[in-house]
Amino acid sequence: MSDGTFLLSLSGQIDYISILAGAGSSWHCKYEFVAGPDWKIVGGLEAGLSQTANVVSNGEDIVLNLPIDIVYKSTNLHGWPQIVLSVYSGINLQGYGRSHIPLQPGLHKLNISLSKPQPSSFLGYLGTFFGYQPELLQPKMLASTAGNNLIQMMSSGEVYVTINNVFQGLNILGYDIGRVN
Amino acid sequence: MSSSVDENIELLEITSPSSTKSYIKTKLKIADNKVGSPPTSSPAHSAKGKPPQPKPRKLALATIKKHKRKLSRTATEATSESQETSNSIKEKHDDFTESIFSSKSDTRSYREKFKERFESVKRQAGKSVSKAHTLRTSTENVKSLKRNLHLIKKENEEIENVLQNYQKNKVQRDGETESVSKIEAYNFFCGENNEDSDVENKETIDLKDFSKSTDVLIAVTDKDDEEPIQFTPADNLYFNIKLSENELYWKPSRNRPKITEKIESEEPRLLAEEGYYVDEKPKLASSHLAILEQRLLSVGEKKWFNCEGELNLLPNPSIETSYKPYLYKQVNKDLETEYVSATIDAVSNEDIFIPHSNILDISILSIKLKHHPLFSPEHVLEQRLITFYDLYKQKLNGNKLERISKRLDALRNTKKNIEATPNSNSEINLKKLEDCINNIRKLRELYFEESRQNREILKSILQTWKDIKKIRQTNNYSNTAIKLNIRKEKCNYEQERRVWDANIEEACNETVSELELELQKRMLNYKKELEQWKLEVEDQEHSEEEIPKKPKKPTKSIDHDIIAQEVSDRFNECFKPPGEPILHFNLSYDNEISDKIENSKEKLRRNVVATTKIYLRLICNKMEVCKSKIVPLTERFTCFIDESFSVQLSTIPEYLIIEVHEQPSTLLKRKLGEIKVVIPPRNVTMAQSKIIEEYFEKDEIVHYKHEGVGSGIEFKKIFPDNNEEDERILYTSGIITCKTGWDISTIDAHVFEETSELEVVQDLLNEDGTINVKKLIEWANENNPDPQDPKNSALYEYIKNYEEDIGIIQNSTKSYFRCNPDMAPFEFCEPKDIEENLRFKVLELRDRNEPEFVGMVVPNRLKEIPADILSDYNRRRKEEGKNLIEDDFDYDEDEIDSKRVHGRKYLKQVYTKVFQQCRNAENNLIYEDVVNEKLLPHIENLTKNIISNILSWFQFQPTINILTPKPTRKTASKITDFNASVKIKINIKSAMNVPLRNAVRSMRSMSNENSEETTVKPFVVATYQNVSLHTAVVDGTDPVYNEELILPLETANTDYLSPNSLSGSIVIRLFDEVTITTRNGNAKARNWLGSIEIPVSAIAYNNKMEGLFKLRKPTNLLGYEQEVDDAYSNTRVSNARQAAVQHTYLSLKVTLQPNIPKLTQSMDELETTELPYIKQHILNWNEAYNNEYPNRKFSAFAVDINGKTTCVTRYIRPLEPPQLNLDRFDVSLEQCARYVSMIPFTDSNKFYQNVWLSTEQLLKLMVGSVIDHAIALTCYLTSLDLETWLLLGYGLLHGTTAYVLIREYNRESQIPLHFIYDVVTATKYDIMDVLCPLQKIFCVINEQNVWGNVQRTDQIQLTRFDFMRRSDWLPLFTNQVSAPTNSVQQKLIYSVTPDIKQLEVRIDKKIRKKISKLRKHERTVWNHHLSRAFKNTVIKNETGSMLGRRNSELYPEIRNFTSSNFINGYIINMPYTTVSTILATIVATGVHLYEGVDTEFGLAVKIYPYPNHVLAVWICFAAIISRQLDF
C-alpha cells in the first residue's frame, strides 16, 4: 500500500455462547464493531444479528456459528477495533461482552466474558424476579470508558469467538507485530 | 418310553379342548381385571404346592407338542366358544367393579355371593392347573375341569340374570348414589382399612396364583414350535447356595468372646488397678473389636491378648498438635519457595534437569618458602632482609609519618589560634585548648613511635645486610642472589640542627604546658577533695570514727632540665640526628651465587637441595583430588608450579586444602604444610578472582649435619654473634600463591548479577522494597566506591538528591525525574520524540477531543500531514486567552452582517469551550443516559397499583385494575437500523382551526367553482435535516390525521461526544393542498400555512413532548381568511381566549426512541466566581431539590462566558430598555418583548442552556439562547417596575426553557394575575390559560432569590404563586445565607443601528435571484405594483406590532389586488440573522413552486431598525394569479 494505509481483514464466527440457559429458551446474539476515527470499513458488515437458537436441554451451549466478516482500512493503530456483543434470550438481555480484536495475524480463539447491568434501585432489583432487566442505551459505550463508572454489572457467561485476521501493509508502515507462531 | 407316549395321546385327545378353554377364560379374566403379576414368580408358587418333579413333566410337555396339530382344530372351536364365555365374564367383572362403585349396601349380597363362587371356581381351577402338569392325574383333572366348566357356564347365566336386574336398579338409583360412590370409589382404591379393599386384595392375591398357571398354559397353547421346557420351576438355588455357604464359610459373631476364652491364665489381671500405667486405647467400635477378637480366637492365637483379656492395642500414633512451631513471617531460607519465572529457551531449561557442573578452577602459581630446614644461614638472613625490606617499603608507601606530622602542625596552629583569641579565658576556649593539648600530646607520642619504628627498620635492614655481607665474606661464597643497594642523600647539617633544636624546644614547651595543665587539674581536684574531706572530718568528729586521710597536695614538680633531657633522648631515639644522610634502599637479586665451593657441608646441603623435590596435593573433603607435578626445590627456595586444576564438585565444600609435600631423594616424603583455600563465591570466574597468597608453617624440628639450618631452631643459635634480640624460632614456612575461580561456562550470567548485586541490595532495601537511603549512605561510606567511576555516579547522584530533598528545601539542581529503573525496558522511545512528532501530537489532540480534530483522519506518514494542521487550534487557543469581545472590533463595510457573524462565531467558541470542559470532566454522564430502564416506571406503577389495591381491599373498594398495559416492544430490529437506531417519532393527531381559504368567499360568488375548492385541504410535513415526511391530506378546518412519522436521527447527531450533536430543529409545516392550472393541465400545489420548530435537543432531553402546539403563522396569510378581531377588547382575558380561537393548533406527540446519552455538566467541578461557602450552599440546595423532584431538575448555577459558574440570581438586575419609540417616553411591556424577540436565537443543543449570557453580551453578540433572551426581558421589565421573575420550566416547543413571569393586579379583584411571556414569539399567555405552552414550573428567579417549586402538582393552573409560602416554594437564600449582590449585568450602551437601506435591497435582490433560479421551467414575472403596495403595508404592520397590536387587516392597496387577482402568499416577520436563513425560510414555504399560467410574484422586503443592530425583517411574498384569466 503506497498511500500510507493498511488493511485488516477479519473473518471468523461467533461459535457458541456458554451461559446458564434453561431448556426451552431461545437465544440470539448481536455483534457490533467499534473502531477509532481513522478506521474505515471497506467491506463486510459493521453489525450483525444472529439467528435464534433454541435450547433443548438445560445448561447446554448455544451454538450460533454466526459468521463475521469485515475489512477495515486505517492509517493509525489508534482505536484498534473492538467487538461488542449483546446476547439476548428471547427479548430479554442476558449480557454484554467486549473484546479487542487480536493484534497478531492468525487464528485466534477468544472467549469473551459477558456481563449485564444491574438495576439501579431496590424496586428494579425486585423487578428482576419478574424478568425485568436494565439495558444499555448504547452497548458501544463499553468500548470506551465514558460512563462506565455509572454502571454496575454482573457477569453472566461467556461467548466463544473464533477470529482469523490478516493484515496487509502493516509492516511497510513500520509496525512490528512481533513473532507470529 | 414310546408306548407310554401313545397312551398319553389318547388321553389328551379327549381332555385338552375343555382344559384349554378354561385356561383361556381365566387368562382373559385376569387381563380384564388388570392385575398384573410377575410371571417369573409363578414357578416358585407352583413349586410351593408341589415339590418339583422334573422328569414326568418333561414327558408331558413333549407329548403335548407332538399332538398339537391334531388338536388344533378342536382347539380353535373351543377357543371361539370360550371367547364368548370370557366375554360374559368380562362383562361380569366390569359390573362387579361398577357395583362396588355404585353402592356398598346394595352390592354387598352380590359380592358375597360372587366371591364364594369365584373362590370355588378358583380353587378348582387352581387345583386343576397345578395338576395339569403331571401326567398321572391328568385324566381325573380333565373330568373335573369339564364339570367345572359346566358349573361356570351355569353361573355365568345366573350372574347375567342378576346383572340385568342390577342394571335396571342402577339406572333408577343413579342420581342419588353418584356422589357417594365417588368417595366410595376412592376408599375402595386407596383406603387401607376398608373392608372392601381387603376383599379386593385377597382377590388379587388369589388371582396372582391363578395367573401363574394360566399364563403358563396359554403360552403352551399359543406357541407351536417351542419346547415347553421353559415352564419348569427353577431349583431353589438360593437355598442351596445358602446352605452350602453356611457350611463353607465361617462368620465371626458380633458378640465379644468371654474373657476367660481370651486369657491363658485363669483370672485376668487388671493392670490399672494394680497401679501400672495403662495407655489410652484408641476408640474402636465394639462390634469391630468383637469380630477381630473372634477371628483371632478362632485361630487360637491368644498371644494377641494381654493379661487383661483385651487386645494389645497400641495408642494412636498421630498427634493432634504439631511440634513444628508456626513461623511468623520469618520463613526458613531453606524452606522458602523461590519464584522462578517460566522460561522457554532450551538453554535455560537445562538447569532444570542438569545440575550445574560445578567446575572449580584452581591454578597454583608458586610456592615461596620462607623458611626451610635446608636453608643456609645466608638464606635465613636473606629472608630476614626481605621481611624488613617489605616493611620498609610499606612504611614508605604509607607515608604515615608525614601525615602525622602535618596533622600535628595543624593542631598546633589551632592551638595557637585559640590562644590568640581575645577571650581566651572563657570556659569554652579553655575546654577547647585542653582538648587541643591532649590531642597534640597523643599525636606527638604517635609521631615519636612511628618515627622510632622507621628508624628501627632502617637499623635492622642495615644490620641484616651487614650480616649477609659478613657471612658471604666468611664463607667465601654466596648462596643468595640478594643485594641491597643503599643510596645516601646528603643533608645540610646546620639547617637540620636548627629544625632539630626547634622541634626539641617546642616539644619541651608543650610537655611543660601539658604538665602545668595537669597540675592545675590536680589542684582543682585536690581542692574539691579537701573540702570533701573537711566536711567528712566534721561529720566524723561526732561519730568519732577513723579520720580519713587528708588528701595530698600535689607538688609542682616541673623540672625543665629533666624534661629537656627526656625530650632530647626521645628525639635521639626516634629521629635521624641532624647531619645524618637520608638512606634509600633498593633490593635487587643480581648477586652472583658462587658455584664453586670448598665447604663440603655446604656442598652436601646443595646436593640435598638439588635432589629435594616438592609437589602439591589438592584435597577436597579429605580426599585427594589432584596432585601437581613434582618440582625441584631450587636454590632460591621458590618453586614455580604454574599449574591449574579443574575440580568438578558435586557438593561445594567451604574450602579446599592444598598440601605441600617434599620428596627428598633419600628420605621419606613429608608434608611441609597445608593451606586452606576458601572456595570463592559462585559468581567469581578465574579472570575475576584475585591471587591469593596463603601462608603456611609447620613446627617441626629438623637438624642436619650439613650447612642446612634445620627447623625449629632459635634464630640466636644460628647467629650467636648477632646483637639483635631476636627470639624467633625458625620453622618451616612458606607462601603459596594460587588463584581459584569457577569455570566460566558454569556461571550463569544472571546468577552473577543477582547474587553480586542482591546481597548488597537486600541490605539496602526497606521492608517494602524501597531503597533505604540511610543504609545506602552507610554502605557507600563503608565500601567507598570510587566516585569518579561512571558506574557509581548514579549512586552518588541519588544520595545527593536525597540529601537535597531531606535537607532544606532549596532550588534543587536536578532537572530530571528518576524513573523506576525497571520501567526502562518498556520505554520504546524518548518522550520528547513523541512530543515533537506532529502526527503524534495530532493524535493526542484528537484523543483529547479538541474540536478541531474530532473525526479527523490522521494520515500515517508525517509528510502527508499538512504543516499548518495545528494553526486553527493554535489560533483558537490564542483567542481563548482573550477574555471578552474586543470593543474595537474591526467591522467590514457590512457592519450588520459581520457583527452577527462574529457574534455567532464567538458564542460557538464559548459553547465549545464549555463543552470541552464538560467532556473532559469526570462525571459528565448520568445513569439514565447510560442504562435503559424504561420498564422500571411500569414496574413502579404495578407495585403502586398492587399496594393501593391491597389498601382498598381493606376499604372494600377493589376498583383499580392492576395491570396497566405493558409497553410493547418490537422484537425484530432490522440490521440496517443499527446505524440509525435512534428515531424521532412524531405522532400527528390532529389540527385545529386551520384557516379557510379566502377563495371561499370569492369562489362562492363565482358560480362555476365546485364545492371542493371552497374549503381547505391541509397536510403536515415534518422535516429534519433534509429528510421530509408528510401526512395524508385531510379536508376541513379541523383535520384528524392520527399518523406517525418516523424521522431517523443519524449517529452523528446522537454522538454525545460531539459538540454539534442534537443541534437543529424539526420543522413541522402545515400546508394546504390546492389545485392550480398549469400549462399541462391541473396540478397540485401547496400553500404554506405556518410552521412549528421543535429543537431536537428539547425532545432528547425529555424524550417526550406532547400537547397542543401553536402554529406559528405568518402575520398575514394572503388568500386565507383572517378572523380579524376588529377592536381589541378591553379585558385581556377575553382577548386571550379569542386569540386562542384564532390561532391554529396542532396536536402532536413527539418522542425520541431510544434514549440517547447526553453529557451533563457537573457544576461542582467547574471553577466558580462565587465564594466557596455560597457555592457549597447552592450546590447542596440544588442537589437536595433535584433529588426530591427529579422531574424538575434545574441548575442554580449558570456557566458564564468564561466557563465559570455563577449564581443565577446575579443575572437579574433592572436594566434600562432601549429607547424604542421617539414619540413616547415610556417603553411599553410589549415593545420590550418584541425588541427581545427580534434578537436572533441559536439553534444549538440544549446542553448549552446552562451557559448564560448577560444582556450586555447578548446585545454584543446579537445571538443567544432562549434563556438569554428571557433574562434580558426580565431585566427590562424589572426596570419598568413590574413584578417580574425569570421562570425556568418545561414548555412546549422548547422543552426545558425559560419564560418571563409577570404578576399583574387587576383593578376589580384582589387576586393577582400571572402571565408568562414567551420570548421567542413575544406573546403573552395567561397562566390560567389552557393553551398556555408552559407545562411544568421548576423555579422562579429574581434578583434576591431562587424559589424552587415544591408543590405536588405539576399542573400550572393549580400552582400557587405565593412565594412566601415555604410549603409551596423552597427559597434558596434564607436569612442565614443571602444572595450574592454584585450582578454580572453591566449597564447597557446601545449602539446606533446603521443604515439598512442597502441591506433591504440586497435581501430583495437575493430572494428574487434565488426564486428565479429555482423556477427552472418557468419564467418568473415580478409584479412591481404589488411590491409597492406591500411595502406600505409592512411599515404599518411594524408600527402596529410595536404598539402591541396585531393588525392583520389588509390594507386597501392589497384589497384592490385581491379583488382582481388570486393571491397566495404571506407576510412574515422575523429577526434578521443572515440572508441565507431568510432565503431558506422563504424557499421552504414553497410559494415559488406555483407553476400556474400567468402567475406573477410579488415581493417586498422591509427592515425595521431598532437600536443596537436589532432588525425586524418583514417579507411579503405572494404568487398572483390574475383573475380574469380564469374565465
From TrEMBL, chain A:
One GO cellular component, as annotated: MKS complex
Gene Ontology BP annotations: cilium assembly
Localization per Swiss-Prot or TrEMBL: Cytoplasm, Cytoskeleton, Cilium basal body
> A Pfam family in this protein?
B9-C2
Q: Which UniProt keywords apply?
A: Cell projection, Cilium biogenesis/degradation, Cytoplasm, Cytoskeleton
Work out whether the entry's keyword set contains Cytoplasm.
Answer: yes
InterPro entries, from UniProt? C2_B9-type_dom
- UniProt xrefs under PANTHER family: B9 DOMAIN-CONTAINING (PTHR12968), B9 DOMAIN-CONTAINING PROTEIN 1 (PTHR12968:SF1)
The Swiss-Prot or TrEMBL record describes its family as follows:
Belongs to the B9D family.
The protein, known as: B9 domain-containing protein 1
Organism name: Ignelater luminosus (Cucubano)
TrEMBL record, chain B:
Tell me the InterPro entries matching this sequence.
Answer: C2_dom, C2_domain_sf, CC2D2AN-C2, CEP76_C, CEPT76/DRC7_peptidase-like_dom, DUF5523, Tectonic-like_complex_comp
Coiled coil (residue ranges): 135-172, 516-543
Biological-process GO terms, alphabetical: non-motile cilium assembly; protein localization to ciliary transition zone
Keywords attached to this entry: Coiled coil
Which Pfam families has this protein been placed in?
A: C2 (PF00168), CC2D2AN-C2 (PF15625), CEP76_C (PF24652), CEPT76_peptidase (PF24656), DUF5523 (PF17661)
Outline the extent of the C2 domain.
983-1108
Composition bias type Low complexity, residue spans: 73-86
Q: What is this protein called?
A: C2 domain-containing protein
Origin species, per record, is Ignelater luminosus (Cucubano)
Show the taxonomic lineage.
Answer: Eukaryota, Metazoa, Ecdysozoa, Arthropoda, Hexapoda
